[in-house]
Specification:
InterPro entries: DD-CPase-like, VanY-like_core_dom, Zn_M74/Hedgehog-like. By secondary structure, this protein is mainly α. It has helices at residues 5-44, 51-61, 70-80, 84-87, 99-106, 120-135, 149-163, 166-169, 192-201, and strands spanning 141-144, 186-190, 208-209, 217-219. The protein has two domains: 5-106, no CATH class; 115-219, Muramoyl-pentapeptide Carboxypeptidase, domain 2, CATH 3.30.1380.10. Strands 1-2-4-3 form a four-stranded antiparallel β-sheet. It binds zinc ion. Zinc ion (ZN) is lined by residues 181, 186, 188, 214, 217.
């Protein structure tokens, strides 16, 4: 009996050891799989126990973007996901959902060459004139419509340098507070053929050339279908 026992024991120990190693190994694999699953669940926002944390913490957590703890990480992913595509290039940190819409609504970018910044009256008249010119084979191009006061001042400063005095400069470029361009009530057009066409036909649409020295400059100076007023030699900066 005793002679039979020793050879069995090592074998028994080996099998036990192997089974223990096997159990530990399987346990490790299962454990890591569970951990991995939990992490994936976190990333996908599927962890059921973290849902209530999202709703309670989400309001104050929006202002603090860099999230390190698991709870805030869980709040970041669901709240940011819908707003990220439009906001990532421009606003990386603060209030990603509101800033881009504010920019697009409160700051309409009006190009100087577009008629969209003109007064409704001049814009409507000019559109009709442009269509009629096109029917005659003439394309009216807008070189300058509404200008910002800043741009107008810059043009005036350049004109003062060019003509040598304020008085001479204002024959060509009025100060911002007198400029019809800044009010959206004047338009400069081109090329020469378009100037000639509009000078001849503009009265039909109530659009008139105003100055002798500026064949490109037109304003809504008369009722459509009535004669344009006499031209002025050049612009004058009125003192008021
Ligand atoms: Zn002009």
């Amino acid at each position: 009996m005793r002679n039979d026992l020793p050879p069995r024991r090592p074998g028994g120990v080996r099998t036990r050891l192997l089974s223990v190693i096997g159990v530990v190994g399987v346990g490790a694999v299962v454990g890591s799989l569970l951990l991995w699953h939990a992490q994936v669940g976190d990333f996908l926002g599927l962890a059921a126990d973290k849902e209530p944390v999202v709703s309670t913490v989400s309001a104050p957590a929006v202002g603090a973007p860099p999230a390190t703890t698991p709870s805030t990480l869980a709040t970041e992913t669901p709240t940011r996901r819908p707003t990220y595509p439009p906001s990532t290039p421009t606003t990386p940190t603060r209030t990603p959902s509101t800033t881009p819409t504010k920019k697009s609504t409160t700051r309409p970018v009006v190009r100087e060459e577009s008629i969209s910044g003109l007064s409704p009256k001049l814009k409507a008249r000019l559109k009709k004139a442009m269509a009629a010119a096109k029917a005659d084979g003439i394309t009216i191009s807008i070189t300058s419509a509404r200008r910002s006061a800043t741009k107008q001042q810059r043009l005036l400063n350049a004109a003062i340098k060019k003509y040598g005095s304020y008085k001479l400069a204002t024959r060509w470029v009025l100060p911002p507070k007198y400029s019809a361009h800044v009010q959206g009530k004047a338009v400069d057009i081109g090329p020469a053929a378009a100037m000639t066409w509009l000078n001849k036909n503009g009265w039909r649409y109530g659009v008139c050339r105003r100055y002798d020295n500026e064949p490109w400059h037109f304003e809504a100076l008369t009722a459509p279908g009535t004669k344009c007023p006499p031209r002025e030699p050049h612009a004058v900066a009125k003192a008021d």
